[in-house]
UniProtKB/TrEMBL annotation:
PROSITE patterns: DSL. This is Delta-like protein. One of its GO terms (biological process) is Notch signaling pathway. Disulfide bonds join C178-C187, C191-C203, C211-C220. Putative Notch ligand involved in the mediation of Notch signaling. It comes from Chiloscyllium punctatum. Pfam families: DSL (PF01414), MNNL (PF07657). It is a single-pass type I membrane protein.
Length: 222
């Protein structure tokens, strides 16, 4: 009876793990170019009349990221069903974006369900004036907007991409990886090696249980 109860407990535990897949979408901003220092409406970031006085246009740039489900016609507005992020000011006009302590780069968007293999991504570059004002509701602050949808398989390799507008260029990369102990195309297969009363096995490349020598059964408990 006790042995049967243990088996039922193991089965339930495994089912719970199977129902809670785990992975993370990672987005890395790499380089942004806005050589003329213009906003999306082709105005100088210091004001439309600044260039008339010989003043340089300086766009103090931060980014808003919205990750959502696949949409044939992408809406940049919330809800961001898979997550959102807002960076601090990362530079002026043209700059590289290294890994930094001020914000997470790559940005990480955890998933607690099966990765669907598709997504929509919005990345907005905005001008901060003053520098500590990171509000995103003023359309005059928008420098550029990327809105794209993609198919993406699970894997460690980064997908490289570039977005260009009339006066800007953004280089970025992304990937989706499974958390530790999760496997499969959607990170829905759970396998954690163990050698105790609940099982005696290691894990294969696809998350299959590989019984240790001398053990057999679905959970290597026999």
């Amino acid at each position: 009876m006790a042995h049967r109860s243990i088996c039922l407990f193991i089965t339930l535990l495994a089912a719970l793990h199977q129902a809670s897949p785990s992975g993370v979408f990672e987005l890395k901003l790499q380089e942004f170019n806005n050589r003329k220092g213009l906003t999306g409406n082709v105005n100088c970031c210091k004001g439309s009349s600044a260039s008339n006085y010989g003043l340089p246009c300086e766009c103090k740039t931060f980014f808003r990221v919205c990750l959502k489900h696949y949409q044939a016609k992408i809406s940049p507005e919330p809800p961001c069903t898979y997550g959102s992020a807002l960076t601090p000011v990362l530079g002026s006009n043209s700059f590289s974006i290294p890994d930094a302590e001020t914000f997470s780069n790559p940005m990480r968007f955890p998933f607690a369900f099966t990765w669907p293999g598709t997504f929509s991504l919005i990345i907005e570059a905005l001008h901060a004036e003053p520098t500590d004002d990171l509000s995103t509701d003023n359309p005059d602050r928008l420098i550029s907007r990327l809105a794209t949808q993609r198919h993406l398989t699970v894997g460690d390799e980064w997908s490289q991409d570039v977005h260009t507008s009339s006066h800007t260029e953004l280089k970025y990369s992304y990937r989706f990886v499974c958390d530790e102990h999760y496997y499969g195309e959607g990170c829905s297969v759970f396998c954690r090696p163990r050698d105790d009363a609940f099982g005696h096995f290691s894990c294969g490349e696809k998350g299959e249980k590989l019984c240790n020598p001398g053990w057999k059964g679905a959970y290597c408990t026999e």
